[in-house]
Amino acid sequence: xxxxxxxxxxxxxxxxxxxxxxxxxxxxxxxxxxxxxxxxxxxxxxxxxxxxxxxxxxxxxxxxxxxxxxxxxxxxxxxxxxxxxxxxxxxxxxxxxxxxxxxxxxxxxxxxxxxxxxxxxxxxxxxxxxxxxxxxxxxxxxxxxxxxxxxxxxxxxxxxxxxxxxxxxxxxxxx
Length: 175
Known about the structure:
Largest sheet: none
Helix content: over 70%
Number of domains: 3
């Protein structure tokens, strides 16, 4: 809410700044309390599930598997291409190849594809494409280089001939 009080002098300005600082601190304290309450409310279902799963055998193995996927997804060298592939590959596989598969097979393919694609990044793909293109087109590049080298040699020879002609003319003018 705006205060309709006008500021007329320096003392009024300082008082208004002080009032606004106090109000800001009150609002920050209120928001931090609300944030803590929200964290407690959200954490309650996770605590419940963790208590239930602590008594089930084999859950630790599943947690290890999913933590490996999370590490692959959150790698530092994961770029936009990696993230798009991690999202897109399971969708494409589930809608085409695994259309009639059960949920367990789809989940395993999801975990495997995210882990495998986590190793792929834009640099590796561009390096692979560069290797393929260099394997396919090495002969054309060499011919172009030879032609360019021959043209450069011809230009150098022409320039040297022109310099020699100019030196001869200078020498003849002196004599």
